[in-house]
Amino acid sequence: MRELPLKGYRAVDFGWVWAGTVLGHILADYGAEVIKVESKRRLDGLRLGRVFELGTALEINPTFHNLNRNKLSITVDIRQPKGVELLKRLIAESDIVIENFTPDVMRKRGLDYDSLIKVNAHIIMISMSAAGSYGPLAHVVTYAPVISALSGIDSMVGYENDRPLGFKHAYADPTASLFGAFAVLGALRYREKTGKGQHIDLSQWEATTSLIGEAVMDYSMNKRIYGTQGNRHPTMAPHGIYPCKGDDTWVSIAVKTENEWSGFCRAIGNPPWTKDPRFTDKYGRLKNVTQLDKHVSQWTSKHTDYEVTHILQKHRVAAAPVLTVDGIFVDPHVNKRHSFVDVDHPVVGGEVVYGLPWKLNGAPAKRFRHAPLLGEHNNYVFGKILGLSEKEILKLTDEEIIY
């Protein structure tokens, strides 16, 4: 059984709220030692479950627990030169630096890439700002919902030919983090081959826009605007969310090929309507999709979501129940994939955090560590890694450098 692939690497995580934070936990989940940099003077927004809380109240936010599991936490006041010097010493002993501030925040503190390569020429730094570090909108201040709107993806979310509803959560943040994870892995591989580190300048806006490449190309080439799509698909039919037996119960179905259409027809018993000339080829099904969906809904409404799923999957048709929040936790497939992990948190006790969908062949099953308490690992990081004495750590704490 091999080690987790990122064991032996160390990352200094300045990730704030969600975007950079998710990238940090991905690296930590796969074995890297990820040290989250915090400060009591300016707390990570996710620690503040309710405004102006202190003490153990800062340790109860479940979102923070999910996004920061497997990490260590130190508290440093980076507004003070001694705090910056401490972090530079730590970065000199590290491989990766993560930050998702607006450009110039790190530069003003003397923690930008040009400054850091003077203390560690091989460092890999990833900066995940809204629009990148240069260009006319480089200094725009955003949160993920703003980036979803700017990217154009929000304009496609809504009922068909109706007003855009957009995403109701910070979709752009984890999206950018996934791009960032692949970029960091590529940079580590490059460094192994060349010995050179690099600065990754990632625009969250561009990363999110890349998800709607077809819509961008269609407008560029044909001047067509996608608009709201509902659950319809330009080349699949049936394709959508269909009602099932029960209270507000639904199933998702997607039929891509003619073979899948034949399988769908067999699965539902080849009723007469499936032989209607309007539905015998993909062009006809797409042209008459509204009537097609009515027929499909009449069949699905006679069965539960799991009955529909099992009937169609036996005929190699893509189908799955639309799960509620509580339904996710009891779904057999989700549980078989170990999609959730039990952890024991010292303040809230036992809790569940989400796992990762990628399973590594031959790698050990990692037991997730709870999200760190604020400054929980100051002694380990400043003592064991940086070699400061207990007296020196106490002095820096009294001076509110370690704070």
Q: Examine the coordinates and then state which fold CATH places here, giving the name of the CATH topology of the largest domain.
A: Rossmann fold
CATH superfamily of the largest domain: Crotonobetainyl-coa:carnitine coa-transferase, domain 1
Count all strands and give the number: 11
User: What Rg is obtained from the alpha carbons, in whole angstroms?
Assistant: 25 Å
**CATH classification, class level of the largest domain:** Alpha Beta
Name the overall outline: elongated
What is the ordering of alpha helices and beta strands? EHEHEHEHHEHHEHHEEHHHHEHHEEHH
Name given to the CATH architecture of the largest domain: 3-Layer(aba) Sandwich
Helix fraction bin: 25-40%
Largest sheet: number of strands, sense, barrel closure: 6 strands, parallel
Question: What do the pLDDT scores average to?
Answer: 94
Strand content: 5-15%
Q: State the end-to-end distance.
A: 41 Å
Number of helices: 17
How do the strands line up in the largest sheet? 3-2-1-4-5-6
Low-confidence stretches: none
Q: What is the number of domains?
A: 2
